[in-house]
Amino acid sequence: MKTVIRRSFAALSTMILALNVSAQDLGPGARPVGENWSRSPVMATNGMAATAQPLASLIAIDVLKAGGSAVDAAIAANAALGLMEPTGNGIGGDLFAIVWDPESKQLYGYNGSGRSPKGRSYAQLTAAIAKMKASGKLPEDYVGIPSHGSLSVTVPGTVDGWFALHKRWGQLPMSTVLRDPIKYANEGFPLSPVIAAGFEANRRRFETVAPMVEERDNATNTYFKGGVAPKAGEIFRNPDLAKSLEAIAKGGRDAFYSGPIAQKMAAYFEKIDADLTLADFESHEGEWVEPRGVDYHGYTLFELPPNGQGFAALMMLNILKQIDLREFERGSTEMFHYMVEAKRLAFEAMAGTFADPDFAQVPIDQLLSDGFAKRQFDRIAQDRVISPSQLAVELEGEGDTTYLTVVDGDGMMVSLIQSNYRGMGSGLVPTGLGFMLQDRGELFSLEAGHPNVYAPGKRPFHTIIPAFLFKDGKPFMSYGLMGGGMQPQGHVQVLVNIADFGMNLQEAGDAARFLHDGGSSPDEGKDTDYGTLFVEPGVPEGTVKALRALGHRVEVDDTAGKFGGYQAISRNVQTGVLTGATEMRKDGTVVGY
Fold first, then answer.
1. In the UniProt record, does the keyword Iron-sulfur occur (predicted)?
2. Of 60, 165, 355, 546, which one's alpha carbon is 20 to 30 angstroms from that of 552?
3. Edge-to-edge strand list for the sheet holding 106-112
């Protein structure tokens, strides 16, 4: 009987191939409730964590169960992700956070971005770039600061951010908070599929940019033993990172910024003839900042001020409020046209103004005013795109990042984002420390007079942004959507899905997205470029054709990576019920209890 069945199946397979029907045409299964393309959100009451790696979510929950606050759990998850997802973050990068404190009933913002070397001038930087071009380490036509190597490294702000948050809201000692990440770093864990693919992508990238990077052996020994990227399911260990986390757990913030870790980083920079010094690390400090909000159809979206790009999302919302998107179908041409044009206009305004506020006056009140939004909206035509020549300055590029959110049983809600910027970072791993340094400094402009132009001791324009949502004037949801210039437009798309189209948290993240890439930005954008409008395959074919007819340069992209990584947790104020969602395009999950 089995032989007959096998022969019948083989005959059927042959017939299918003859008809040129591919198994790839198989669509999603059915669901008893909700959209067919989206699974259920997760619900709980005592605590919840949503991260890009399941083990990190579980670590956060274990910290909550041990009596830790949402801040303790978020720090533990972030430390674990630096080990488990080094393709997107680590203690060599920066951190931003928004925290809802139920005790003070206040929303707090933290900017944990680091600064450029105080001893390197603009002239010295441009001379170093010219020297790299003359020696063949950079192409002659390369524009901007090198994407890899020491010239793009700024002081990492993450560890300082951990201790600033922990000082205010921590309930457990840092040795307890970091215990599980240290254990996993020593003993290892099985690598998950999307992150494994990121390892291989970074390996290839580092081969391409090798001439820019002063020293590569440390990165190879830490992440690519034998020159090979680890694969999904392989046990990955990082004992050097375990030692660094142990030093932080024992010595606190000072271990990283003035103690043994800082001293090893400074010695490494001196060895490779780079510019950051021990004094740069010793002088670092993050900053508490005030989130600003914009109302939208019963919700209020809060973002952090520049040097980050969060206010671009607020400008997009202000423009979109000039028309009621609920009049259109979610997959319609009108919806995409208005949202994309709002993005382009918001990024134009951001391009000429966003920078480190210690070095530039950013006209925040004007940019977030109703009058400015009305003037911006009036520039949008229904029958064509705004001509690129009317726009001002490419930012997006890559921005591999991790976003996580944790909510505890008391109602404390943490929205935290952390990144090394482009891929795994600069390619530089200080000897014996187990983490890569960020290449965030690539986002400085070299245009003289621009607010974001490079200067010593300055924070670059920043892409990573956490978000927080109020509903009817009360704290409702901590969320984010990681990935370069996708972030502001992703924040808006998720909010529109929830506020205007009644999607639940998981549906709002799973729905097909767009990414407009190129055009105006605060680094080295071109004012004559429209860029490209990338859309996922779920966008109707008729909408794609109609958008092209309007002048949008549309590409349908099924690779998922461009469209970011989303996590969200909402809290019902009356019942305390937590609802969580995670990104289907990543490896992560939501854990609640």
1. no
2. 355
3. 287-289, 106-112, 94-101, 413-421, 400-408, 47-51, 589-592
Sign of the dihedral through C-alpha 502, 503, 505, 511: negative
Q: How far apart are CA 462 and CA 452, in angstroms?
A: 10
Q: Count CB neighbours of 308 within 10 A.
A: 26
Residue of higher predicted confidence among 214 and 518 = 214
CA-to-CA distance for 148 and 186, rounded, in angstroms?
Answer: 28
Contacts of 173 (CB under 8 A, 6+ apart): none
Q: With 80 as the cut, is the pLDDT of residue 5 above it?
A: no
Q: Look-up: residue for tokens 């290839």?
A: 204
Q: Tens digits of per-residue pLDDT, 369-395?
A: 999 999 999 999 999 998 754 443 344
Q: In what order do the strands lie in the sheet with 514-517?
A: 514-517, 532-535, 554-556
401 among known catalytic residues? yes
Please give the backbone phi and psi of residue 224, each rounded to the nearest 5 degrees, phi first.
Answer: -135, 60
Taking residues 48-58, report their average pLDDT: 98
Give CA angle at 167 (359, 186), nearest 5°.
Answer: 100
- Residue 330 sits at φ, ψ, to 5 deg, of -60, -35
Q: Which helix (H) or strand (E) holds 265?
A: helix 260-271
Q: Give the active site residue among 401, 463, 543, 582.
A: 401
Residue 513 near residue 368 (C-beta atoms within 8 A): no
Q: How far apart are CA 38 and CA 52, in angstroms?
A: 17
**Helices within 188-238 (DSSP H only):** 193-208, 217-223
Give the confidence band of 1 by pLDDT, cuts at 50, 70, 90.
very low
State yes or no: pLDDT of 104 exceeds 50: yes
**Is residue 246 packed enough to be buried (19+ CB in 10 Å), middle (13-18) or exposed (0-12)?**
middle
Measure CA 294 to chain center. Answer: 21
Per DSSP, the three-state class of 389 is helix
Q: What is the mean pLDDT of residues 35-50?
A: 94
Task: For the chain, give every domain's residue range.
Answer: 52-93+118-284+427-443
For 405, the 3-state DSSP assignment is strand
At residue 327, the pLDDT reads: 97
> Do residues 499 and 297 make contact, with C-beta atoms less than 8 angstroms apart?
yes
Beta-bridged to residue 467, according to DSSP, are 479
The pLDDT, as a whole number, for residue 388 is 58
Report if pTM > 0.90.
yes
Q: Rounded to whole angstroms, how far apart are CA atoms 367 and 585?
A: 33
Distance CA(553)–CA(533), nearest Å, equals 6
